[in-house]
Model the fold of this input.
Amino acid sequence: IAGITQAPTSQILAAGRRMTLRCTQDMRHNAMYWYRQDLGLGLRLIHYSNTAGTTGKGEVPDGYSVSRANTDDFPLTLASAVPSQTSVYFCASSDAAGALQFFGPGTRLTVL
Amino acid sequence: GENVEQHPSTLSVQEGDSAVIKCTYSDSASNYFPWYKQELGKGPQLIIDIRSNVGEKKDQRIAVTLNKTAKHFSLHITETQPEDSAVYFCAASETGGSYIPTFGRGTSLIVHP
Done:
């Protein structure tokens, strides 16, 4: 693989279910990010990690959790999905915080 | 924190015309300003960026200008082509440390053939 991969590509989920969106990068970037994209609202940061072992909250963290056990992987978990979490989710990485970001192809999540 | 405003939200041009998208930012400490292009069904991809020590940068038909005093930067696309149709995002950040990029809300550019 080259760059960032995300899985699944799309998912339909019943409200109340737990879901983990996966993100893997092979560029050895220190920083990784999760965004959600909703029409008219642009890209909103959910959580970020500046380096393995550390995470931080973004603009819209409620209902989401992340972990960064190693450099390459940054999973996003919805503990109990709600319809307002219907969105397209993008993972990104950069070699340094605040620098150029590389984005994954996105996961389209629908919560019914 | 940083606030980035982007205008217009939608821009429609004829093929061959120029397109200009403008962004303003609030934090004078921001020193890195990338522009991303997002095609339908894909993730955003960097197309050009500029750092605060430079006033203008050009790459073929794309250019970015930065006015640090006024805290605004712009994307200029000349000789637009239908394949330029996409959503464009500006962002501002202070590189290093834990500084997170702040994105504008995006501009949907439509180039009519």
Remarks:
- The longest strand of chain B covers residues 19-25.
